[in-house]
Amino acid sequence: MASNEGITEKFDDDTVTYSLEAVQKVLEGLKPKKFTLSDATLILLYAQSENPIFGRIMLTKEMFLLLNEVLEKNDVQESKFVAYHFGPYSFVLGNVLSNLESAGFVDRTGKKNSKVEHFKLTSKGKERASTLWNKLSINIKDELPAKRKGWDQLGVDGILRLVYCKYPDFSKNSYIKGRYKNISSGRGIG
C-alpha cells in the first residue's frame, strides 16, 4: 500500500494501520498461484515417473524449460532463475529439492552434484504428483511426457546446448559457455 489511502492511524515510529476496507481491496487484487515450485518439480518428475532425472544440472535445466515453455508463468510461484556458473540456476529450486527430499516426496540417490546422482518420486511423491497432474490442462498432460522424454534423451551436453541457444542471456556467467557455441546451418540454429 504505497499511497496514504486507507491509513487509519500513523505512529511516531512511522508504523501505520490501515482500514479493513483498504486491506481487503489490496487482497482482492492478489491472484494466488496455481502451483508452487515444489508442485512443478513433482509434476516434472511425474511426467516420466518411472525414469529418474540424472544430475542436478539436468533437473535444474528441465525445470527451467518446464517453467518457460510448458507451464504458464503466472500459474507457478516465482523461481528466481539467474545466470550462473552452468547457465540458469535457481537458489530457490535448490532449497525446494532439499525440502522435497526431507519430506519424503523425492528420493535422491548417488553422489551429490555428480552425474550419477538421480532424482525420482517416492510412492508418497507419486501420490501427491498424481493429484497435481489432474489439475493440468489436457494439452499440458499430452505435451509434457514427450517433452520430458526428449529433454532426458538430450543428456547434459544437449540440454545445455538447447538452453544456451534458446536463452543466451542465461549463459553470460557460465564457466562452460564456450563449449556450446551456436551452430548455424540452413534454416535454424542448433
Which structural traits does this protein have?
Arc Repressor Mutant, subunit A, 14% strand, alpha+beta, 6 helices, 46% helix, three-stranded antiparallel beta sheet, 190 residues, 9 strands
How would you describe what is shown here?
This protein has 190 residues and is an alpha+beta fold. The chain has one domain: Arc Repressor Mutant, subunit A (Orthogonal Bundle). It has six helices and nine strands; from the N terminus they run ββααβαββαββααββ. The strands form four sheets. The protein has a three-stranded antiparallel sheet with strand order 3-7-6. β6 and β7 form a beta hairpin. α2 packs across α5 and α3 packs across α6. The longest helix is centred in the C-terminal third of the chain and has 29 residues. The mean pLDDT is 87.
